[in-house]
Amino acid sequence: MNMVYRVSVDRQLCIACRVAPDLCPTVFVLGKDNGKNRLVEAYSNETSNDVSTGVIPDELYTCARKAAAACPVQAITFDTT
Q1: Local structure of 32: helix, strand or coil
Q2: What is residue 16's predicted lDDT score, i.e. its pLDDT?
Q3: DSSP 3-state of 9
Q4: Residue 28 pLDDT class (50, 70, 90 cuts)
Q5: Cα separations (Å) of 22 from 2, 63, 65?
């Protein structure tokens, strides 16, 4: 059974350091709206100035988790669905 993961980026906390997009560009990108980290369109459910949320497949979890672990302000969190 393949798991899917809900990913949330706290864009208020984000400092736009590029760590997540550099480590996992398949999942994360800096937004054109405010320059802060967000999920790429393919996996995004919601993006506002405050938060970016979405769902990623199991095969992208390791990449996204490494990016989250490297985030200096811990702005990225996960839940399983």
Answers
A1: coil
A2: 97
A3: strand
A4: very high
A5: 26, 11, 13
Identify whether the C-beta of residue 45 lies closer than 8 Å to the C-beta of residue 54: yes
**Cα gap 73→56, rounded to integer Å:** 21
Domains in the chain, ordered, with CATH? 4-80 (3.30.70.20)
* Strands 51-57, 76-80: pairing kind: unpaired
In angstroms, the Cα distances linking 63 to 37, 49, 55, 57 are 15, 24, 14, 11
C-alpha 6/C-alpha 22 separation (Å) is 20
Which secondary-structure segment (H or E) carries 66? helix 61-70
Report which DSSP code applies to 22: H
Q: Per-residue pLDDT averaged across 61-73, rounded?
A: 97
Q: Determine the Cα–Cα distance for residues 51 and 38; give it in Å rounded to an integer.
A: 8
